[in-house]
Amino acid sequence: MRIAMIGGGYVGLVSGACFAEFGNDVAVVEADAGRLAALRAGRMPIFEPGLEALVEANVAAGRLSFGNSVEEAMTGAEAVFLAVGTPSRRGDGHADLSFLYAAAGQVARALSGYAVVVTKSTVPVGTGRQVAAIIREARPDLEFDVASNPEFLREGSAIGDFMRPDRVVIGTDSERARDVLRRIYRPLYLIEAPILFSGLETAELTKYAANAFLAMKITFINEIADLCEKVGADVHDVARGIGLDGRIGRKFLHPGPGYGGSCFPKDTLALARIGQDAGAPQRLVETVVAVNDARKSGMAQRVVAACGGAVRGRRIGVLGLTFKPETDDMRDSPALSVLPRLVEAGAEVTAFDPEGMEQARPLLPASVRYAEDALAAAEGADALVLLTEWNQFRALAPERLAAAMRGRVVVDLRNVYDPAAMRAAGFAYFGIGRAG
Fold it and tell me: Could you read off the pLDDT of 334-388 as tens digits, one per residue?
């Protein structure tokens, strides 16, 4: 089957490569000249484990191509996926749909026969109907259907999530569109992956509801962690105790400095706005947004307190900058809240991240220095702060850190290290949700 993918960003690139791996002929349209040149040269504009090899294999097999012409990509296409950005609109939190609606207009002009136009981007409820209206107004002669097929990809494990999904959600009112999408996803039927068909609005809302619920679990355990510190409990034991309940589950009960990334911050904010506009305020979601923002802002003060109340003139080593491991994504990373505040308080900050330093440089204060590896970031540091739980940081022996550092303060905002081992090595160790 021929598929056109409008947008070669994270969602479009991963989805396009995976659809090609299913055996489809996929043409990815990318408007950004630099990104397109990189893709055509085999250079990935994002870091995602396994993506480069997947793209290379499918380009070599002739199933995956990159271009900037919507018309060429849509020639013979039975499905057109819209995978352009829908960032938060500055000032009000609503999703900015200008790129999506512009893409819908391009599709309308390029369509020559029946196709299913599928929103892959995360969009507010009602967007699919508006896409259909844009196309119908531009080309009343066309025969087409609109569907919603939200992505549920976790950065760092996106290919596995696509190939072996927990579920696939498809929203459309058309049986013909359902048939096209069934054929596209046929390889998943063979492994009995759950595929849920629904109406357009249901599919659009399901994406927001899923992300908001996960963000709420993270925020809940973070607040429980604060309570654990006050009453002498251990948040990890609490998380295990509640996570073993099948109604709750163990995932997303890991305390930390607050959620970030490309999805949770903007999707929780957008869902709150959708609820307000619809007259059904989402009070829990609104509170989650406020609590998470405050948590990220307060993490720097934890570091200052661990250093005795002042960091002026102190050297602070920072391990990890991206919002999570196995990605180079800096969007809404806690590092963007913590490091500027430490610099403002007078600290000399040296940071290391395996993949995110290039992306971090333009976003962080110019005085932040970047190390070539984790031990170099710790070299001569009065205090060490762990912000992102990359596996290579877990492997750092406390004795090696002690030999590298000048001071003996470790602030572990991901609870990666064993407190007893760190204290045995002479460190004043500060974790999250652990008393003492």
Answer: 999 999 999 999 999 999 999 999 999 999 999 999 999 999 999 999 999 999 9
Residue 228 designated active-site:
no
Q: Which residues contact 40 (CB under 8 A, 6 or more apart)?
A: 66
User: Is 0.85 topped by the overall pTM?
Assistant: yes
How does pLDDT run across 189-234, given as a tens digit for each residue?
Answer: 989 999 999 999 999 999 999 999 999 999 999 999 999 999 999 9
In the structure encoding, which two tokens stand for residue 324, read together? 């999570």
Catalytic one among 18, 228, 263, 307? 263
HSE (side-chain half, CA atoms, 13 Å) at 55: 26
What CA–CA distance (Å, rounded) separates 16 from 10? 10
139: closest CA among 158, 115, 157? 115
Phi, psi values for residue 29, rounded to 5°? -105, 125
**Can you read off the two tokens belonging to residue 64?**
């995956």
CATH of 295-430, one of 3.40.190.10, 3.40.50.620, 3.40.50.720, 3.30.465.10: 3.40.50.720
Q: Which residues pair with 144 in a beta bridge?
A: 115
Q: 171: part of which helix (H) or strand (E)?
A: strand 168-171
Domain 208-289 class, CATH top level: mainly alpha
- Distances 412 to 321, 394, 396 between C-alpha atoms, Å: 14, 11, 13
β-pairing verdict for 348-352 and 369-370:
parallel
